[in-house]
């Protein structure tokens, strides 16, 4: 086991995780940080024959925790005491990175400064004298372009040379800081950091200070109210900013760009309300054609029909027949709800191609820098439902996986925002596999059906969001987000993300497919499915106007949302649903309560009582909306 830990720290969207993954390679593993729902990635490095542990912390702008990401990063530094901090910076925004650098310097941990995106800086006409910056700060400074591997090898060479900075900022409130630091310096190694954060009004730092010292400090050095703490923070920022401008004035040269930059022009267009809306419409259309038509249609049809139905499934059935396996066991594997004929076939013939296509598309959007611009463009719309544009990130992630999206909702600062996004994620955001299957079904009917489905879901998000924003007490924050440059996506980065996400699918989702199928098999053999279908028939048949067999798809939809959508897809392929019934079922199963895994995470995050109220309200809304849609479709020919 590694004795020393290297922490990778940096602002969001600076290429920190790309560098971490390149250095740790296949030895990295993602998990929640203890006591939180925030993911950290851990790995290991070997330098000069010595093994180091490595951790990729969440991207942060400050270590004064306003979000759980910032709390996790600071707690990790305080609890795990890394031997070295590798701070990754966006060379184009060096001033902002230096604010974080001087916060890190308070902890007296050796640092190396990695100035990433060197290639983009060159295109932007920005040059930095890294040797002068290294001389001023007294820590190793490395120029890198992570996407092309430029300078990556130098990081490993420089880690043993990491130092604490020799540049000390003398703050205007130095006497107050020094008063607390003198009390703590013999007791804790991060005395100066604790002093600054206490004066900033951060109560979270107090748990790292012995109680007797806390009481002594408050009695002798610290008696600030909120207004005074805010004033201290403002002065602290101004002092740092003054020093940073002097540093960058000596180390940074900016040349005026002489040529038109198409990608920057495109990035600006994406922020324009009119042009940005056209770009968003184009993005949605391309996603529809690629994921919904090509991957969920052409590719799925080939794999499902040619590979599974015509070859693999008959081969597996023949094996059971040849060895005369007991009928019950045979039925368990290759029957109507068999592990092979349902779980494996659905998981690999239908879902796997669809999510592969979606993850490819999502990877391109992420790597190009488009998603943050989408947040800015949608900020005004989201403000109408009590959110800001940052909420688009959990929503987009929800299209990948609702379970991960619920966890990522922690990036929203207020309880009100988190509750609104939780309900909307549970109500109306389909996961990628479910979305792909639904698009495949609806595109087989007509574009009009797809538009009606999209309008139903969008109207639900806006209407429910508006109601929640009105009735849930609390405030919503304004959007503050970093806008990276628009860039040509890196194929290697995209493939790496697809590989990571597909591994998650195989490890986390496929086993649930198998467990869900086994549960459905047991329900069927105990004749419970027929009883459930009978009990729900007044709602399913009389109110929604659907075949009673669709009951099982809703049950499967709770076990896995994409699993239920796949059941509808098969029923539609077999001609068991009319076009209107396909559309109604697609809308209802989208609005239906989230899958079991997402439901369990909601219960864990917000408690059983809150989750139960949300799920009951969502189920009622989905059924009523489906009934209303049934009536309206009598006047629309699809």
Describe the structure.
The chain is an alpha/beta fold and 638 residues long. It has three domains: 4-161, Rossmann fold (3-Layer(aba) Sandwich); 174-254, no CATH class; 273-633, no CATH class. 65% of the residues lie in helices and 8% in strands. It contains 27 helices and nine strands. It has helices at residues 16-24, 68-80, 94-105, 118-123, 130-137, 152-158, 174-184, 191-199, 211-220, 226-251, 262-269, 273-322, 327-334, 339-368, 370-383, 392-400, 402-408, 415-428, 432-443, 447-471, 491-525, 528-543, 550-559, 561-573, 579-591, 596-606, 608-633; strands spanning 4-10, 29-32, 39-47, 50-56, 84-90, 111-116, 126-128, 141-143, 252-254. Strands 2-3-4-1-5-6-8 form a seven-stranded mixed sheet, with helices on both faces. The protein has a two-stranded antiparallel ribbon with strand order 7-9. The longest helix has 50 residues, at 273-322. The model is unreliable at 31-37 (pLDDT under 50).
Count of helical stretches: 27
> What's the number of structural domains?
3
**Structural class, from helix and strand content?**
alpha/beta
Instruction: List low-confidence stretches.
Output: 31-37
The proportion of residues forming helix, as a percent range, comes to: 55-70%
What gross morphology would you assign? elongated
The radius of gyration over CA amounts to 28 Å
The portion of residues forming beta strands comes to 5-15%
Q: Quick recap of the structure?
A:
Helices cover 65% and strands 8% of the residues. It has 638 residues and is of the alpha/beta class. It has three domains: 4-161, Rossmann fold; 174-254, no CATH class; 273-633, no CATH class.
